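Message: Study each token:
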Amino acid sequence: MPKMFDLNPRALELWNPSLQAAGADDDASISLTGIVGDEWPYDEYAKPLTLARVDAALRSIGDKRVTVYINSPGGSMFEGISIMNRLNQHKSGVTIKVLGLAGSAASVIAMAGDRREIGKTAFLFLHNCWSVQAGNRHEFRQLADTLEEFDYAMRDLYAEASGQDATVADGWMNADSYFSGKSAVELGLMTGLLDDSEVSINARALERDLPAARRIEAALIKTGMPRSERRKLMSEYKSALLPDQQSCSKQGLASSSEAADLYESSNQTRDAVLALKELLAI
């Protein structure tokens, strides 16, 4: 069995975590913005997208129809399938609304609703399973066989949702396919388009977003570095970037917010390059 499923780095690079639903604070909606089954370590306010969280929300909503807003690059395949199955059990019906990206495991969740809507400029990202593994040739052969079963499960899910033949869905996954809102509707993966007024920008999330951090983590994924090691390295990297109190005082910076502004404006590119140089030396 694979030790873990991992994020596809292409999805992580393209994900914009600041997109949110306009007016999604009603008591019959669930907002799934983040990594499926895992925390997003560069934002202390981001909540992992887990089965436990979705189940608790559905229990609180009760017998009302639920709207699920999605903006996620994906994550754990197991968690994504579990969330999709739980949503399908909601007897009052589910409306899925893809705001920015439903990639990888998040695209599996997006197949749950009987009504599935997507923004005109939003995307689905479909691909075969990603995994990180270490071992001998026998373990890698077993891994390939195991991943194939998960790929077949996703293929059948996309085919059933879209009404397309399984061989067509297989081709989408093999090609690492991005589908715009219009294409996703035309192919039958989604049932309609969102109105532009339903999507807004979360200003606080935009301030906290670190594009360089996402690009660096994507590069680390490509090297095959396990998630625990990536997070440790990125945590050390992030700590090293925080200006200390004495330095802030010398530069007349009254708050950590001003220090962060200084970092963003003058040091981000330099430090990202240094981190990538260290990565290439691993």
